[in-house]
Design brief:
Elongation Factor Tu (Ef-tu), domain 3; about 475 residues; alpha/beta; Rossmann fold; single chain; seven-stranded antiparallel beta sheet; 4 domains; six-stranded parallel beta sheet
């Protein structure tokens, strides 16, 4: 029987007959990286006199093609390798690096403090959400609590800017950090990161920080409620539980505009598919393409519209016996909190986290009253005194507004009373604080407050040191 196709036995015979040849044969269609690897293997095999399958395959394929002119195959059909290469080029940026695995395994542990990170991957999660994978300039093991955040120290248009983002990855996979950023219309930092931060760029971050995590909050049964980019701490927590405590009882309900707006859809479906105790549900304002979710995971539960107690009972019948972790836009969290209070949920088991881009707060800071101190006080306003500066401040404006309006240095990362970066000390006067997260009882007794969450009730003297 004769054929023009490939025959393993004939290739084997040909290779064995020619095993003393020192020149490996390559095909014109082999990629450079694969060719280099095959060359090395073939040379080593030739030196030892052994058989090389790749050499045999190359030899046979070379005999079928013209030796003087490479065979060029043209096609208008689908090419999986071509499609994959195109997708990776357009969606994912990766550096070309040589990894020393021994050094990686011996890496020291990073737990807290400032560190310089290098972006090693960048990809689109959705049309307006970008993920970045970071590693240390030198190999490092990242140790943090699932749900915590890091604070970026950036320089945008010549000005220092600080912003906090939750770590989306899990400390059970400690050699890199993933941060996922949703672009906010007009958002200074989110748009800068999405458009300007690329693979091989370095950034400085501090952290980790945050009490919204699985270590500081104890639970037996979990109910993760999220909306939009609020899914990031839930993803970190879910990954940690699935990697370390495989029988964890997790109910996850995520709200989004549509199936196309869901972040980490593949990862969440994969975790739910592997665990019988991971209940995955979505509440979609637009449920036109729900088959995209059930195709990933057949047992996905889907409700349309917005989350209500009736829908929550349908999706998680035992929600009253669970510890609730919630993260998302403030209106979403306020609405869900109100629903749970009305349903007489035990709010001792309710924990929330929220981060915003901070653009609104920055605008408010720049709009501090232009009245003179005398005019401001005559109209019932208060004065904020910092060192030798007297700053007019309205009763509805935070200490952070006044500090920034005077051009004084302060780190304001989350701007929502969560990260603790804007801690300062009230030495005189009365204030009202809506958040004391990250502050210890001793610090509160000494007069420390969070500038982003504190307004004044009288003339106030403040220390930033």
């Amino acid at each position: 029987m004769s054929t023009s196709g490939f025959s393993f036995s004939s290739a084997l015979s040909a290779a064995q007959a020619e095993k003393t040849s020192a020149e490996p044969v390559t095909t014109p269609q082999t990629s450079p990286s694969i060719t280099a690897k095959s060359d090395a293997v073939n040379k080593e095999s030739s030196a030892k006199g052994g058989f090389s399958f790749s050499s045999a395959l190359s030899s046979k394929q070379s005999q079928q093609a013209s030796p003087a002119k490479p065979v060029v195959k043209t096609s208008t059909g689908f090419s999986f390798s071509g499609a994959l290469a195109k997708q990776q080029t357009s969606q994912i940026q990766r550096p070309q690096t040589q990894v020393d695995h021994a050094n990686t395994l011996a890496a020291e542990e990073w737990q807290v403090g400032e560190v310089t990170l290098r972006c090693v991957e960048k990809w689109q999660e959705t049309h307006d959400v970008t993920s970045f994978r970071f590693q240390g300039i030198e190999p490092v093991k990242f140790n943090y609590k699932p749900g915590q955040f890091i604070t970026f120290k950036l320089n945008i248009s010549g000005k220092p800017v600080y912003r906090s983002y939750t770590i989306a990855s899990s400390p059970s996979r400690p050699y890199s950090l993933i941060v996922t950023v949703k672009q906010i219309p007009g958002g200074l930092v989110s748009n800068y990161l999405a458009k300007q931060l690329n693979v091989n760029d370095d950034v400085t971050v501090t952290g980790p920080a945050g009490v919204f995590n699985l270590v500081d909050i104890k639970a037996q049964k979990y109910l993760f409620l999220s909306a939009g980019s609020g899914v990031t701490p839930m993803h970190s927590m879910s990954r940690w539980l699935c990697d370390t405590t495989v029988d964890s009882d997790i109910a996850f309900v995520h709200s989004a505009r549509s199936a196309e707006d869901i972040i980490f859809a593949d990862a969440m479906a994969s975790m739910a598919q592997r665990s019988s105790q991971f209940s995955l549900s979505y509440v979609l304002e637009d449920d036109a393409n729900t088959q995209a979710l059930t195709k990933r995971y057949a047992d996905t539960q889907i409700e349309s519209g917005r989350l209500t107690i009736e829908k929550l009972v349908q999706l998680v019948p035992d929600y009253q016996s669970r510890t609730v972790f919630i993260c998302g836009p403030k209106p979403y969290m306020d609405a869900v909190k109100s629903l749970l209070v009305t349903a007489k949920f035990n709010m001792d088991n309710f924990y929330q986290e929220s981060f915003g881009d901070g653009q609104t707060a920055v605008s408010a800071a720049l709009s501090t009253t232009t009245l003179s101190p005398e005019q401001h006080k005559a109209q019932g306003g208060f004065m904020l005194k910092i060192a030798d500066k007297d700053i007019p401040l309205g009763a509805d404006q935070t200490l952070l507004h006044g500090i920034e309006s005077a051009g004084l240095p302060i780190i304001a990362a989350c701007r929502s009373g969560v990260c603790g970066a804007c801690k300062c000390k009230v030495t005189q006067g009365e204030v009202n604080s809506t958040s004391q997260m990250t502050l210890t009882a001793e610090e509160i007794a000494q007069g420390y407050v969070l500038a982003c969450s504190t307004t004044i009730k009288s003339d106030v003297q403040l220390s930033l040191g």
